[in-house]
Write a structure and sequence with these properties.
Blueprint lengths: L2 H9 L7 H17 L2 H11 L9 H9 L8 H9 L13 H17 L5 H8 L17 H15 L1 H6 L3 E4 L3 H14 L3 E6 L6 E5 L11 H4 L9 H9 L8 E4 L19 E4 H6 L3 H11 L1 H11 L20 H12 L3 E3 L4 E5 L5 E4 L4 E3 L3 H16 L13 E6 L5 E7 L4 E7 L12 H16 L14 E7 L13 E7 L6
Antiparallel strand pairs: 1-7, 2-3, 2-12, 4-5, 6-9, 7-8, 10-11, 11-12, 13-14
Helix pairs in contact: 1-2, 1-3, 5-6, 6-7, 10-18, 12-14, 12-15, 12-17, 15-16
């Protein structure tokens, strides 16, 4: 399109895409050219074109990015602004400085070749450092990581013109109260990381925090940070086991083992406990048992279960998978845990409820897409084991005074720390880790670092909400077993626990 056609589209026409609309573009452009000079057309165009971050018109852009009036801009600043409208996000000097400078220098080179500036002018302007003095008050917005996540989806589907000037009304899933609580919880922790909260039954994203300071880093760790989940991956191994004949009372030997490739997995404490039940191994996050269980269930089967639950990243098919060595994002692992919380029903995460056009007509509506993936009985038994992680295991810092289930995750050298947990109505993943992969510190595990942040958020987010128990399927029985053996208690049993089993698999 010519500048005149762009002016016609942006100023007078609707956002309809059709042949008749294209003809209107041409006719209106001809009328504009008959009534205005080229200088007047260019001035109108520059006064209304979009420069990103809510700035329409070159004067508004000059004030936003440089804190100046347009007549006070130097050559380098003018060239930089000239490059932005082609892609307001891609060439934004705030979001993508490298792209903006490259585009600026191309424009300066073109101006030199066309004879508008001297070679000396071009070289001085190209070497000029980018000095922004933008008024970031107008650029601060509510839930910035969530908002930019939404914006990227909208731009991809509808294009910049429709998004920025189409008068769209966007109804999102965000719970502003929960969002503020999540932002505060991460900021007060002092750590870098992410928090994402999802309603399992609907898939609605209720809170998304992609970092402790959006102004310092626009990188959304909730959706873009691919990091090892550590033992937070183990629920998918145990779910596959529970659906394929294993029970919480099965015994696996926690003892040294060396596999064919020479690898010998280690436990966190560098100790071995001997024979342990799957329930205890899960609650205490015993690595060696996790690896042995993965080998018995089958690597390909566990990978399939993880993908069915909602993990979309590629998972490496080796036994180290049991230790969570394949990278995932907080969003996808939260979504996969939501499938467990939902008793095996997968619901795709949703951030937009519906979109209306400028006339109020609904042009898109997201209805939860539900798909049964796993047996509800197996999921319930796993939830019962995950409750034990909080009450007796590595997640004891995640106790919130109501029924909750979850799992800790810690990677080698304490580089990444996780806690992903849920109540019947809310799944929340907390990821903590430095962008440069610098260790968090000695013994800074998921239970020590991430679980308290999770608990702080969940307590406040669910304040004044009904305390719900997880729905128990009909084919579940809860019986008392001896903690150590997993069998029916005898007189000599030192500690008795109530454990959930699928009917017919309980100890007799």
């Amino acid at each position: 399109s010519t500048i005149t056609q762009q002016l016609a589209i942006n100023t007078f026409l609707t956002r309809e895409i059709s042949l008749s609309r294209k003809l209107q573009d041409i006719l209106l452009a001809l009328q504009i050219e008959r009534n205005f000079t080229k200088e007047e057309i260019l001035e109108m165009y520059l006064n209304e074109i979009y420069f990103g971050h809510g700035a329409y018109g070159v004067q508004s852009a000059a004030q936003l990015y440089f804190g100046k009036n347009v007549q006070d801009l130097n050559l380098a600043e003018c060239a930089l602004l000239a490059g932005i409208p082609r892609g307001p996000s891609y060439y934004s000097p705030i979001l993508n400085q490298e792209n903006a400078i490259k585009r600026r220098n191309i424009i300066l080179n073109r101006m030199f070749k066309l004879g508008y500036i001297t070679k000396d002018d071009m070289e001085k302007a190209q070497q000029s450092p980018l000095k922004l003095n933008y008024n970031n008050k107008r650029d601060k917005f509510t839930a910035p990581y969530f908002s930019t996540y939404i914006l990227s989806q909208l731009l991809e589907e509808f294009g910049a013109n429709m998004v920025y000037k189409g008068g769209l009304k966007i109804y999102t899933t965000l719970d502003l109260r929960m969002q503020n609580i999540a932002e505060k919880a991460l900021q007060e922790s002092g750590y870098e990381g992410a928090i994402i909260a999802i309603e399992p039954n609907s898939g609605h994203i209720k809170a998304m925090v992609g970092g402790k300071n959006f102004e310092e880093s626009k990188f959304n760790r909730a959706t873009q940070a691919y990091r090892q989940p550590g033992s937070a991956f183990k629920p998918f191994i145990y779910l596959a086991a529970l659906e394929n004949g294993f029970t919480p009372s099965n015994i696996i030997e926690d003892s040294p083992v060396t596999f064919e490739n020479g690898w010998s997995p280690e436990n966190y404490e560098k100790e071995f406990r001997g024979p342990v039940t799957l329930r205890e191994a899960f609650e205490l996050s015993i690595n060696v048992v996790g690896v042995k269980l993965l080998e018995q269930v089958g690597i390909s089967k566990v990978i399939n279960y993880a993908h069915k639950a909602g993990i979309k990243s590629k998972l490496r098919p080796d036994l180290s998978l049991a230790l969570g060595t394949s990278e995932v994002t907080p969003l996808e692992i939260a979504s996969a845990y939501a499938t467990i919380a939902n008793l095996g029903v997968r619901v795709e995460p949703v951030s937009i409820i519906r979109i209306e056009d400028y006339d109020g007509k609904i042009i898109k509506e997201n209805v939860p897409q539900k798909k049964k993936m796993f047996k509800e009985e197996a999921c319930y038994v796993l939830i019962d084991m995950m409750k034990g992680v909080i009450t007796r295991g590595t997640g004891w810092n995640a106790q919130i005074g109501r029924p909750a289930a979850g799992k800790t995750g810690t990677t080698d050298n304490f580089i990444d720390a996780w806690f992903i947990g849920f109540t019947p109505d809310l799944v929340t993943a907390v990821y903590i880790g430095n962008d440069d992969r610098k260790p968090l510190g000695n013994k800074m595990t998921g239970g020590v670092v991430a679980a308290p942040i999770w608990a702080k958020f969940m307590k406040e987010a669910l304040k004044n909400k009904e305390k719900k128990e997880f729905m128990q399927p009909d084919k579940i029985v809860k019986i008392s077993v001896c903690k150590q053996s997993g069998l029916l208690p005898t007189d000599s049993c030192p500690e008795i626990l109530s454990v959930a089993f699928i009917k017919g698999t309980e100890p007799t």
